[in-house]
Amino acid sequence: MKKTIVLVYSVIHLAVDMSCAILVSNLLAQRADGSYSLFGAVVLYDFAAFVLQLPFGMLADKLNKNALVSAVGCVLVAAAYGFAAHGVIACIIAGIGNALFHVGGGIDVLNISEGRAAPSGIYVSTGALGLFLGMKSAAFGFQRYFAVVLLLLLCFAALQWLYVKVKGSVRNVPFSVQALSGSAWLAVLCLMLTVCLRSYVGMILAFEWKSRLPLGFAAIVGVVLGKMLGGVIGDKIGYLKTAVLSLGLAAVLFLFAFDVPAVGIAAILLFNMTMPLTLTLLADIFSGARGMAFGLLTVALFVGAVPKFYGVTALFTPWGLFALTAASAVILSAGILLHRKARRENDAA
User: Fold this and answer.
1) CA distance 60 to 247
2) CB 299 within 8 A of CB 188
3) Whole-angstrom distance, CA of residue 273 vs CA of residue 245
4) Of the listed ranges 31-35, 107-111, 255-259, the one predicted with least confidence
5) N or C: which end of the chain has fewer CB within 10 A?
6) 230 with 255: CB under 8 angstroms?
7) pTM for the predicted model, two decimal places
8) Which residues touch 23 (CB under 8 Å, ≥6 apart)?
9) CA distance 297 to 289
């Protein structure tokens, strides 16, 4: 049943993110009427979709109805299409729906993971593919969007089924935010800084060769496989080794990524391997508030994206990417070591 839970949420994750990308990048761009800009719409959507996951995650922790929370998210994303003529409203509704889906699914997956990073890596990875497919669907006309709404309603039905199947067998722990030691808070800071850097790097990676559809698709596949493999490898050889090896190699490969697409794709894959590690570590620190932990990292994702919104891309150079990736390796390694220290302190208390 655990594999089924991960599979259902992962497939619906792709569908939800694809639907949101279609709405924001295509429909709003086509129907912009001067009352809002595409830039403003995207920022509003991102704020709702990422920052609101923190309060929604805390609420979902307490409700203990994760599949239903995700199902409501699917319905809201579908409903956002009905407000397509009102861009700001559509973005806010879609963003809220996206946030609700993510936290509900994220908590359920973390609940069944038993401290392993692989399930979370699989769950989060499919969103990148969904965003890519949605962004590339500009040729779709508005009259075809009913198919997306139908898909989301089917996703709702699947989540309802999942809720009935797992109700009582996969439950949230009672919501609590325990007092943390200094080491634990420093670990939280390091993990969030790592995610901020990963988000910023992901936003500025506008390699010229990515404009060619086959290579752009290959780069997204690298993101997906990186997140999947990061959890699997991290569980096998340890988080510290995985972080140092993946980010160390990625830093070196980024020096050649501008001119050699295959090297760039490999660098992107390696760079994304740490994503499930940061989520699993933070969920362990906030073991009584896994939805809050999920939300904290999505807030970090939004913060990391803000500089790109304002055109801050000066570090998009070979040595700039090397420095950002090397810094990520140092900060994440420190976070992993601080997490270990905090656990020892907690066990000794």
Assistant:
1) 33
2) no
3) 10
4) 31-35
5) C
6) no
7) 0.90
8) 77, 80, 81, 84, 90, 91, 94
9) 13
Q: Please name the residues in contact with 146: beta carbons below 8 A apart, sequence gap of 6 or more.
A: none
Q: How far is it, in rounded angstroms, from Cα 85 to Cα 88?
A: 9
Question: Confidence class of residue 133 from pLDDT cuts 50, 70 and 90?
Answer: confident
Q: Give the dihedral of Cα atoms 123, 61, 94, 303; nearest 10 deg.
A: -80
Task: Look at residues 79, 92, 86, 73 and name the one whose alpha carbon lies nearest to residue 17.
Answer: 73
Q: Is 31 helix (H, G, I), strand (E, B) or coil?
A: coil
Q: Per-residue pLDDT tens for 34-86? A: 445 666 777 889 999 999 999 999 999 998 888 889 989 999 998 888 887 77
CA nearest neighbour of 124 among 264, 271, 230: 230
Instruction: Tell me the pLDDT tens digit for each residue of 174-207.
Output: 666 777 888 999 999 999 999 999 999 999 998 9
DSSP per-residue string spanning 288-335: T-HHHHHHHHHHHHHHHHHHHHTT--TT-SHHHHHHHHHHHHHHHHHH
Q: Calculate the alpha carbon distances from 333 to 33, 116, 238, 271 in Å.
A: 48, 18, 12, 14
